[in-house]
Write a structure and sequence with these properties.
76% of the residues lie in helices and 0% in strands. With 229 residues, it is mainly α. It folds into two domains: 2-126, DNA Binding (I), subunit A (Orthogonal Bundle); 136-227, DNA Binding (I), subunit A, CATH 1.10.30. α3 crosses α4, α3 packs across α5 (64-90) and α7 (136-142) packs across α9 (167-197). Residues 21-89, 130-192 form the HMG box domain.
Length: 229
């Protein structure tokens, strides 16, 4: 997506500005970068998270004098970085600096939104939100045997076969997809109504919040009319 492409660029790159000086890494990360190759050679099958845990343990057990050496290197580079950054900013116009601040702020907000979206998706799944059954082509894919093919080969071959499939065969999958979609929509509606009743409207599509509010207001209005004929 355009968002992911933009996120791979630095703020300066996205704004067409010269690259700023690189922020120096701290003492721990310097030490970790230095010994990581040895750890990987010693434990070639170790997963990345386990390597990270082992690096942290090595750092924790490092003698204070050794830690101090790595941290002093960082402090020295940090002071040099501050001078380089000040020089870099002096060469930019006030508007360019403001644009950088605005873009950094926007990126932080976008990251927070993505994190919140992931958390809501995970929580919704834990609370039993129905899973989307997939479109027509997905139903066709599920009927095929992948065999020994890679995922890329499998998808490419399936797409080619789908294009050459007779219309009457495609119609079978279209009907199946429609039935599953209707069932999914009904289950989703029930689940969303349940979430609203349980005080979790934040997990529900906005349209259903409006519909539920309208229904509640109509019920209250009807009860009021019965009580006051």
């Amino acid at each position: 997506s355009l968002t992911s492409v933009a996120q791979k660029q630095t703020v300066a790159e996205e704004l067409g500005l010269p690259p700023p000086p690189k922020i120096p890494i701290n003492g721990y990360f310097r030490y970790a970068a230095a010994i990581r190759p040895n750890i990987k050679r010693q434990y070639p099958k170790m997963e990345a998270r386990d390597i990270t845990a082992r690096l942290a343990l090595h750092w924790q057990n490092l003698p204070p004098i050794e830690k101090d050496r790595w941290n002093k290197e960082f402090q020295k580079d940090k002071e040099a970085y501050a001078l380089k950054l000040a020089e870099y900013l002096r060469k930019l116009s006030p508007k360019q600096i403001e644009d950088m601040k605005d873009l950094k702020s926007k990126r932080r907000q976008d990251k927070q939104k993505r994190t919140l979206k992931r958390e809501r998706k995970r929580e919704s799944e834990e609370l039993g939100k129905p899973k989307h059954p997939g479109n027509v082509f997905m139903q066709y894919l599920m009927s095929l045997d992948r065999g020994e093919a890679t995922m890329k080969e499998f998808l490419s071959g399936a797409a080619s076969r789908w294009r050459s499939l007779p219309e009457e065969d495609k119609e079978v999958y279209r009907r199946k997809a429609k039935v599953l979609k209707d069932q999914y929509e009904a289950k989703l509606k029930n689940w969303e109504m349940k979430m609203i009743r349980e005080g979790r409207p934040d997990l529900v599509r906005r349209q259903n919040q409006i519909e539920d509010l309208s229904t509640t207001q109509n019920v209250r209005r009807s009860l009021k009319n019965l009580q006051n004929p």
